[in-house]
Predict the 3D structure of the following.
Amino acid sequence: MVDMSTFIDVAVYLGIILIKILVLVFPLFIVVAYYTLAERKIIGYMQVRVGPNRVGFDAVPGLRRIRGLGQPIADAVKLMFKEIVIPTNANVFLFVIAPVLSFAPAIAAWAVIPFDDGWVVADINVGLLYLLAMTSISVYGVIIAGWASNSKYAFLGSIRSAAQIISYEIAMGFTLVGVVLAAGSLNLSDIVMAQKGSLIHWYWLPLFPLFIIYFISATAETNRAPFDVAEGESEIVAGFHTEYSGMLFAVFFLAEYANMILVSALAVIMFLGGWLSPFEGTILGETILGQHGIVWFLLKTSIFMLLFLWFRATFPRYRYDQIMRLGWKIFIPITLVWIVVEAAAVLANLPPWFVEG
Amino acid sequence: MLENYVPIALFIIVSLAIGLIMPTLGFILGPRKPDEEKNSPYECGFEAFEDARMKFDVRYYLVAILFIIFDLEIAFLFPWAVIFKDAGIFEFVAMLIFLLLLTIGFIYEWKKGALEWE
């Protein structure tokens, strides 16, 4: 006999966690959806176009810019009702499972992201390791998609993409080690708290080279322009998802954007003090601007998300050999040296790398 | 202690479920009218190849092997980095030797041309 009250306790316990997860995932989906619109709009304006401006409504008469707000929803519905074409020679099971494999880690990684002090679904002490694991898994989705499609372009795209992702993962891993070295913890909340003090205590300044390398690596990791040779339209059609259509394509698409938001959030947590206020320690520190909170976290994350779009509008695409050269011959040596330099600085109790905590 | 990981497990299940529900909806709601031309793999204007799983450049394979070594190195560096604030000169020198060995390997592969993509 199972005790009824324990059963209810467990159910309530799991139910609360489930609500937390949904409270996180639902806004995340809306952000992902409108991030695609923001991308089209912002790049549009940068290229002196208007971007999508048809689907939507006139919320304020005369303010026509509000038009286009319905675009993500229209896109979602359209993709939902599109036929899913499965190529003749494809391996059907792997073909269907590949997008899920790249999508699920991109969402699951959010479990350890702290939005505010204590606002985290799972406050585990190996948070950064979990994130590294989750971002590593998504490369399987790319490889499997390319292999299962049995199409030349998909195959070429997937091996290119996989080699690129794993190359930049090394540089990225080294920058994470640098952050852990400075913070002395793998827990993301602890990493944020270790940066407490003021704007110049945030790790972007003490770890400046690592910060730059992290964000460039993150751009390459997510296969975004200017590192998007994996799906370079002019070379190999659409890369690993050439054969994907309808909802299966949409899942890949969502995974890419969820990943972009994830690495932006991670950049904020590791280098820009997460939810900490930039006015802390200044004359404005006592006012409302000096309060820490989720607003700062979201604001900083949005800046990084904007940078992704800005990159795409500004930089021409890298050549593949240049990408590999940048990753292996520039980033890895720089980060290797920086880890040693930083360790020496910590050893010598040298501020700002060493903060008594 | 282990209780902290219950939300993680649940989160992974939820994300897998969402990932599976969306294609399922697509399969249910979308039309299904296959024909030979539509189902053939994409090709620029001519007949599709029977099998696209062809030979590929060995350098991709090499990159994957090198990745394993460096990724393991990072995995070893993590616990060291966590406790380094409480550590002394011994731990620093130990890690220097470890990094030195890997750097020698890195220089070797560089000189051998394993990182060249002309």
